[in-house]
Automatic annotation (TrEMBL):
Claim: Repeat is one of the keywords in the record: no
Keywords: Hydrolase, Magnesium, Metal-binding
Origin: domain of life: Eukaryota
PROSITE patterns per record: IMP_1, IMP_2
Name of one Pfam family that matches: Inositol_P
Cofactor dependency: Mg(2+)
GO term, biological process aspect, one: phosphatidylinositol phosphate biosynthetic process
Gene Ontology MF annotations: inositol monophosphate 1-phosphatase activity; metal ion binding
Name recorded for this polypeptide: Inositol-1-monophosphatase
Catalytic function, reaction form: a myo-inositol phosphate + H2O = myo-inositol + phosphate
Organism from which the protein derives: Pleuronectes platessa (European plaice)
Length: 276
């Protein structure tokens, strides 16, 4: 079995370097552009950090491939092949970055034969480096991570996101999902504004579940893997098998919690990331 530790170590180094660039830019004046909706933003720093990461990785591993949020926004196709592939979100939580709300992350997943081999999430304002390698567990700043193992939905703290969609169906589905969850009841519902950091809370046991409809593979590929390696369960929002291109994800402390949430939430239709 191939050992991708060299790539992981290189990924950890460049994720930290990228995080330093994000951190120094967060206090500065930003030029903000809109992408798919008034809540889907991009700045010069998103583009600069993605280029910095891709250039550094390509220089070291010239045959590897990339799926990057801003390259896709600029017209590249999302194509997950069997080749070693780095899936990059240079700033997960761009709206937070623009407002200086202190949860922003560099997210990097690495796949081979379409299977994730490692995931890295660097929450740079908090200086928290989350990572996991296949079969070797999940870590935060070098300390092992474990999901809570909670099985009782009524004792769960659940994380979700408002998302960038602003059409009526997406908004009514998102708000009614939160309403039905609160009525279950659960202990509470939270949203940090970055899917990557949200999901890492499930890996730490600080939250028991996370679900989201409408995010992209670069938002969640790394953190979904970190949850799995921390002993959590990752599925589609209806409890079926997770597909990182589907724009739906649930990550939870146990299968019982997945079931409890899947029974009350609904999804709205989203175009797959790998649709032509
Ligand atoms: C964002 C996510 C956030 C989600 C937004 C968006 P970006 O990623 O992490 O949690 O609600 O829809 O996808 O655009 O900041 O990389």
């Amino acid at each position: 079995m191939a050992d991708w530790s060299d790539c992981l170590n290189f990924g950890l180094t460049v994720a930290k370097q990228a995080g330093e660039v994000v951190l120094s830019a967060i206090q500065q004046q930003k030029e903000v552009k809109l992408k798919s909706s008034p809540a889907d933003l991009v700045t010069e720093t998103d583009e600069r950090v993605e280029k910095l990461l891709v250039d550094a990785i390509r220089n070291r591993y010239p045959l590897h491939r990339f799926i990057g949020e801003e390259s896709v926004a600029a017209g590249e196709r999302v194509e997950l092949s069997d080749a070693p592939t780095w899936i990059i979100d240079p700033i997960d939580g761009t709206v937070n970055f623009v407002h200086r709300f202190p949860f922003v992350a560099v997210s990097i997943a690495f796949t081979v034969n379409k299977q994730t081999e490692f995931g890295i999430v660097y929450s740079c304002v908090e200086d928290k480096l989350f990572y996991a390698q296949r079969g070797r567990g999940a870590f935060l700043n070098g300390e092992p991570l474990h999901a809570s193992g909670q099985e009782d939905i009524s004792r769960c703290l659940v994380v979700t996101e408002i998302g960038a969609e602003r059409d009526d169906l997406a908004l009514s589905t998102m708000t009614s999902n939160i309403f039905r969850l609160l009525k279950l009841p659960v202990h509470g519902v939270r949203a940090l504004g970055t899917a990557a950091v949200d999901m890492c809370q499930v890996a730490t046991g600080g939250a028991d579940a996370y679900y989201h409809i409408g995010m992209h593979c670069w938002d969640i590929a790394a953190s979904a893997f970190i949850v799995q390696e921390a002993g959590g369960v990752v599925t589609d929002t209806d409890g079926s098998a997770f597909d990182m291109m589907s724009r739906r994800v649930m990550a939870a402390s146990s299968s019982a919690v997945v079931l409890g949430i899947a029974q009350v939430i609904r999804a709205f239709p989203c175009r797959r990331d790998d649709d032509e």
